[in-house]
Amino acid sequence: MSLPLCVLALSLGTAVGAVRGSCRCASALAVLAPVWVLANGPVEGLVLWTLDSEHGLTMADLLTIPMLSLATWRLGRSTEVQRWLAARSGPAPRPRVAPHRVTLTRLGGRRARSGPRSAARLSDSGVTIAPARASNPH
Asked: In Å, what is the CA distance from 129 to each residue of 14, 96, 120?
């Protein structure tokens, strides 16, 4: 009688942890669900569906459905599992984008310089500067 109660107590504790967001508790709950089916003999209760003279579905066996559902739900929503799955699938492909040509005419209210300092500052950020128009000498 003590084994089913220990498994039930462990299942309850891991279910509380899984509801609070623990991925490890959800994993332990997924392992404890089949253990509960094997260990619940002394506390089975009513037989709901009889397979044969020695086997059937009991009320205590129905506890595995919410246990597995909670474990599956928590593991599916876990960011830890999502990161693990993303790491196993490899890096995401980078989209190919054509470089944009940007003409800067004003920078901070002033006319943009076409000197080496402004070109170096903007080339580090990936912006290409179009040559400035020559001013009218007249």
From this structure: 60, 21, 10
pLDDT per residue as tens digits for the range 15-28: 999 999 898 999 99
Its sign, for the CA torsion 36, 42, 48, 49, is: positive
Q: Give the pLDDT mean for 87-96.
A: 73
Can you tell me whether residue 21 is helix, strand or coil?
A: coil
Query: From the CA atom positions of the chain, what is the Rg in Å?
Result: 33
Q: How many CB atoms lie within 10 A of CB 29?
A: 30
Domain boundaries, the chain: 2-89, 97-132
Q: Mean pLDDT score of the chain, rounded to an integer?
A: 77
| pTM for the whole structure | 0.56
By DSSP bridging, strand 128-129 and strand 106-107 are unpaired
Strand pairing class (56-58; 47-50): antiparallel
